[in-house]
Amino acid sequence: MVYAFFISHWMLCVLMQSLFQHRYAAHRMFTMGPRTERALHLLTYLIQGSSYLSPRAYAILHREHHAYSDTEKDPHSPHFYKDVVRMMLFTKGRYEAYAYEREQPEPRFRGGYPEWPLVDRTLAQSWPMTLVWVGLYSAFYVAFATSPWQFLLLPLHFVMGPIHGAIVNWCGHKYGYRNFPSSDRSHNTLPMDFLTMGELFQNNHHRFCMSPNFAARRWELDPTWQVIRVLAWFGLIQIATPQRAVYPDPRPQQTGEPTHVEIQTA
């Protein structure tokens, strides 16, 4: 029971991060009506719980990441830190600066992301609500854990969102293979990425930054893209970008696609 809960929570958390915070809030790869947006916004909070990430702050950080990938201005490049913990702590500081509006980003990184103060501030930034989520996760383990070792999984629920981000940003820019040459050091870590629902196709994503399908080769599989296709088939969302990742790249002489920010403000 505990293992099933952990795996389900992991998969759902990373799915909502990939679907709502990344491909919708940061890139606007698809559109939806205001009611659907509110429903997905609330669902993202309810699933991610204590590790919920503000779509606004997430979008700004991610747009900065694309603009400054693997340079000193990148908010989470693994090539400037001795270990993943130090990278996470730096990213946490940059995230909180935007989530709590202590700093403002460059104008080109603003706008186009969903904002809901009730969720993003009143609930997500409330320590009592964070403790409620911690209490709910803990109560589940107390009720269903069959071994003391299972409690080692419990703290991961509290910070699951940042853990997902750390895996993607650390591994996706250090390990794996590259389908496309690029000025950054992005890699595809897994050819069939169920661990982070397609987010570890970083090399593909940086080459085709507006493709809602992060898989490019025939044997690559992006689970979040399959969810997007189902949602579009039911009419809940409308895919807004014609770009698709393709291998081999039909534009080998080009230096790259415009960044999301340039597309978003055009």
Explain the overall architecture.
Helices cover about 50% and strands about 0% of the residues. It is mainly alpha-helical. A two-stranded antiparallel ribbon has the order 1-2. The longest helix is centred in the N-terminal third of the chain and has 25 residues, at about 1-25. The protein starts with a helix and ends with a helix.
Assembly context of the chains: single chain
Global mean pLDDT: 94
Strand content: under 5%
Shape: globular
Strand tally is 2
Rg result = 18 Å
Topology:
Blueprint: H1 2-26, E1 30-31, H2 34-48, H3 55-67, H4 84-99, H5 117-123, H6 127-144, H7 154-158, H8 160-171, H9 202-207, H10 223-233, E2 238-239, H11 260-264
Antiparallel strand pairs: 1-2
Helix pairs in contact: 1-2, 1-3, 3-4, 4-8
What are the key terms here?
single chain; 266 residues; mainly alpha; two-stranded antiparallel ribbon; 50% helix; globular; disordered C terminus
Summarize the structure.
With 266 residues, the protein is mostly helical. The protein has helices at 2-26, 34-48, 55-67, 84-99, 117-123, 127-144, 154-158, 160-171, 202-207, 223-233, 260-264, and strands at residues 30-31, 238-239.
